[in-house]
């Protein structure tokens, strides 16, 4: 019969198996579901501030992480991107904003629950202390004007006539610095202006800019060519020159036009003064009446038409002609019948084929005449008349020069009984030369003058006229009128003599003509003085 009780050996075997099962069950707590052991990896592999430009990578040394961020970075809310071991977690989490004003601790927990603690320290790069103003230039001036920097003083010399009340400098600085007032902002430099340069680190440097307007430059007058008595006596004159009958000159179309013998216009080379083709001239071909000279004056209008006029005695007819070019036939564009006073000269502004004005002035009276040209046609043969009541008599060969193309332009007027005056559109004398300049006995202008032109060269304003009172003073006279006619002094006047004092070259008609053309910073003046010759002169600033 079998025993109802297990024997001792069997009991021991059962207990042994139970113990082994318990041991293996306990060992299974450090394995994953597949029986693999849990990871104990808990490293920070990278620590990057990706939102900064450029991104900043932290330096990992053991459990210490350091990062150097650019100057000016706000470290109170930086969001790092943290890369860690697989299966690990990190706190604070990657991408979570932290205040790195002081070190921040990051705890990495491995899969097996073990932990590693990292300390992150963020340092800010020191800002640059460079705060120099390196260049200061007025690029709006022509040419550019650069300041001279000496220590903290900037000295800028600008040309005469510069408006310093609204200049905008271009400023360059040390890298990472800023300046106030800013570069390119207009400032009034009538008095010194302070500029504060601020370095990246906030330190400052103050520069004082002083702008000085240079004195008015003088005029440098240089002959281009001269065919005048002063050069070589009578042999110097052009062979076409006639006694008493050559009185005006014009320039345009690449030619110089000289009125010759009161009936033709010679075509000259502006670079030499020689005829382009000998005896090839603009002819007077229109039959007119009531004139004392078929052609007495010549101009070139804004459309490069060649414009001439006759000379008329009181009660006669006065005519204005046009040649469209050097090969064109003369045509009459204006006839004024029964003129009240003699007319010897005229002026045009604008284009006689379009819009413009024709001016003339009376001899032996004080009247100025103006005709409007519209759509290439003179509006009326009867002029608008302005009386200059402050003058009794302009004298003969009265010249007139409009200062603009406007109907109400101011006018420079001259004649052999007056010196140049500035007249308003209403006939009011606005300016005249001081008496000390025009005194016939002691003044710089010792007698009457005839034709005149006016031009601006830089900030200088220049009036050129002809002074012809006697054989010893047959001159072109260059007058710097920048400060106005009343302020002209002897120092503002230069002469170019046409005749030698030993020659009897009397200009009995007190006549002559002037014209000019501008090329960049140079003006070339062409002058003709009756009986004394013809010449060309460049005018520049010195």
Q: Could you characterize what this model shows?
A:
This protein is elongated. Mean pLDDT is 90; it is low at 1-12 and 17-28. The chain is mainly β. It is built from three helices and 41 strands. Strands 3-4-8-7-6 form a five-stranded mixed sheet, with no helix packed on it. Strands 11-12-16-15-14 form a five-stranded mixed sheet, with no helix packed on it.
Q: Report the strand count.
A: 41
Stretches with pLDDT under 50, minimum 5 residues:
1-12, 17-28
Which structural category fits the helices and strands?
A: mainly beta
What is the overall pLDDT average?
90
Radius of gyration: 47 Å
Strand content: 35-45%
What is the overall number of helices? 3
Which descriptor suits the 3D outline?
elongated
- Strand arrangement within the widest β-sheet reads 3-4-8-7-6
Question: How would you sum up the major sheet?
Answer: 5 strands, mixed
Helix content: under 10%
Give the end-to-end Cα distance, rounded to a whole number of Å: 148 Å
Primary descriptors:
3 helices, mainly beta, 5% helix, 42% strand, single chain, five-stranded mixed β-sheet, 542 residues, elongated
Topology:
Layout: H1 8-27, E1 44-49, E2 56-57, E3 59-61, E4 64-69, E5 81-84, E6 89-91, E7 104-109, E8 115-124, E9 133-138, E10 145-146, E11 148-150, E12 153-158, E13 170-173, E14 178-180, E15 193-198, E16 204-213, E17 219-228, H2 229-232, E18 249-252, E19 255-260, E20 264-268, E21 281-283, E22 293-300, E23 306-311, E24 318-323, E25 331-336, E26 347-350, E27 356-361, E28 367-374, E29 377-378, E30 384-387, E31 399-402, E32 411-415, E33 418-423, E34 429-432, H3 435-438, E35 449-457, E36 460-467, E37 475-480, E38 493-497, E39 512-519, E40 522-529, E41 533-541
Parallel strand pairs: 4-8, 12-16
Antiparallel strand pairs: 1-2, 1-5, 3-4, 6-7, 7-8, 9-10, 9-13, 11-12, 14-15, 15-16, 17-41, 18-19, 19-20, 20-21, 22-23, 23-24, 24-25, 26-27, 27-28, 28-29, 28-30, 31-32, 32-33, 33-34, 35-36, 36-37, 37-38, 39-40, 40-41
